[in-house]
Write a structure and sequence with these properties.
By secondary structure, the chain is mostly helical. The chain is 36% helix and 8% strand.
Length: 121
């Protein structure tokens, strides 16, 4: 027998974004890094936005934020976009590992050496 939630109204996940759900786009993706600026730039954020800010010290990915907040990705993306537009956070895309200037033979050799040094029990 499943346990029923307590009586009363519970807020819906999208209530913190005013009903907006933002699909993940090129500027906010699953792997986008979100960094708290420490410098407020806009109006004081709401409760959910404050939770995002507290989690962005250290840097967090959008997917990680969604998991920690137990929110859908679209809502998390909307919260991050609002905070970025207000100057509360910065977003950065990860480096493209397929770009040859990022992955060099020397880097791969160092990685191979370090992995060989790892003692797997």
């Amino acid at each position: 027998m499943s346990e029923r939630p307590p009586p009363g109204r519970r807020p819906r996940p999208w209530s913190s974004t005013g009903g907006r759900v933002q699909p993940l786009t090129d500027d906010i993706r699953l792997d986008t890094a979100v960094i708290s600026t420490g410098q407020p730039g806009g109006p004081v954020p709401g409760t959910r936005q404050a939770e995002v800010l507290s989690l962005c010290r250290p840097v967090r990915a959008v997917a990680e934020l969604a998991a920690l907040l137990d929110l859908p990705l679209g809502i998390t993306g909307a919260l991050v976009a609002d905070l970025r537009d207000g100057g509360w956070v910065q977003t950065r895309q990860p480096l493209d590992a397929t770009d040859n200037s990022n992955v060099t033979v020397a880097l791969l050799r160092r990685l191979k050496e370090k992995l060989q040094d790892v003692n797997v029990s």
